[in-house]
Recover the amino acids of this structure.
């Protein structure tokens, strides 16, 4: 199996428990750790400025990276003011670095079994690029957070994704968190089940809403069924950054083995729990994963 990840890399500053440290960020980075730990082949298409090429040293070994050079690298500051991993304040510098379809014509997308898109801003993956990727007929999994993110001074705020229907018609599965879900339709619908169904009617076969320590809600349009996925309790809490990205990657990885949505969701929740117990991206051996899942009583 092989996946191709698309999205920007970011230069992040994490502030938690009085500690401040720099880190590479972006869904592509956090998802790459999951797939490499699970032994799944992957390539990454990223935007990054030439002066920040050293960030690529943090990637797992043997990941083939297609770099689109930009003038500036996206920067994020993730502030966790208390012990609640769901409570995050974000500040950012967001340059406009679109991944235009003309830039990626040399990438062999047809060799992939899944495409994972991880925009961090509304500018990262334009509609024309999504249309181009859809023409490959490879399933597209989209983390929708970037299309809702806007700047108010340097602070990230969420705004309605007004033209979401134009994007979602290309998407196999959409992933957002519950805060994004309540904003995406301009707050006109507040019940998560009503929101998730409305989004699915725009195209995705499945919509996943992650709810932090309360698990996740998944809706299958094909089955017209809801799945409530529980969260697993971590043994320690180290770094919540990238949890949603980890869940998305683990969910897609399990989809290669089974169409059982409950199994996929529980597997993704378990690996997200393991990610929470370490700083940085998901980085475990196969033996460690099996041992931890056994303790959590999660079927492999």
């Amino acid at each position: 199996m092989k996946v191709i990840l698309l999205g920007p890399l970011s230069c992040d500053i994490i502030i938690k428990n009085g500690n401040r440290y720099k880190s590479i960020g972006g869904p592509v980075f956090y998802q790459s750790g999951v797939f490499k730990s699970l032994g799944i082949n992957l390539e990454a298409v990223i935007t990054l400025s030439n002066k920040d090429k050293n960030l690529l040293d943090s990637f797992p070994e043997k990941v083939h990276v297609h770099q689109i050079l930009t003038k500036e690298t996206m920067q994020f500051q993730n502030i966790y003011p208390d012990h609640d991993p769901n409570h995050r304040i974000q500040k950012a510098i967001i340059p406009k670095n679109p991944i235009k379809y003309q830039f990626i014509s040399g990438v062999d997308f047809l060799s992939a079994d899944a495409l994972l898109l991880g925009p961090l801003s509304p500018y990262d993956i334009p509609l024309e690029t999504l249309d181009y990727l859809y023409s490959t007929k490879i399933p597209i999994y989209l983390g929708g957070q970037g299309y809702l993110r806007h700047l108010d001074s340097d602070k990230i705020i969420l705004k309605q994704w007004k033209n979401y229907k134009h994007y979602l018609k290309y998407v196999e599965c959409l992933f957002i968190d519950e805060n994004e879900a309540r904003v995406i339709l301009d707050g006109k619908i507040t019940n998560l089940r009503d929101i998730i169904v409305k989004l699915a009617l725009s195209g995705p076969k499945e919509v996943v809403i992650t709810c932090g320590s309360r698990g996740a809600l998944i809706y299958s349009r094909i089955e017209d069924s809801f799945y409530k996925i529980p969260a697993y309790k971590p043994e320690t809490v180290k770094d919540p950054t990238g949890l949603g990205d980890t869940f998305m990657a683990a969910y897609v990885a399990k989809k290669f083995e089974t169409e059982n949505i409950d199994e996929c969701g529980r597997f993704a929740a378990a690996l997200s729990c393991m990610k929470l117990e370490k700083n940085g991206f998901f980085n475990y051996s196969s033996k460690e994963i099996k041992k931890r899942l056994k303790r959590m009583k999660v079927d492999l």
Observations:
- The chain has a mean pLDDT of 91.
- Residues 18 and 112 are 42 Å apart (CA to CA).
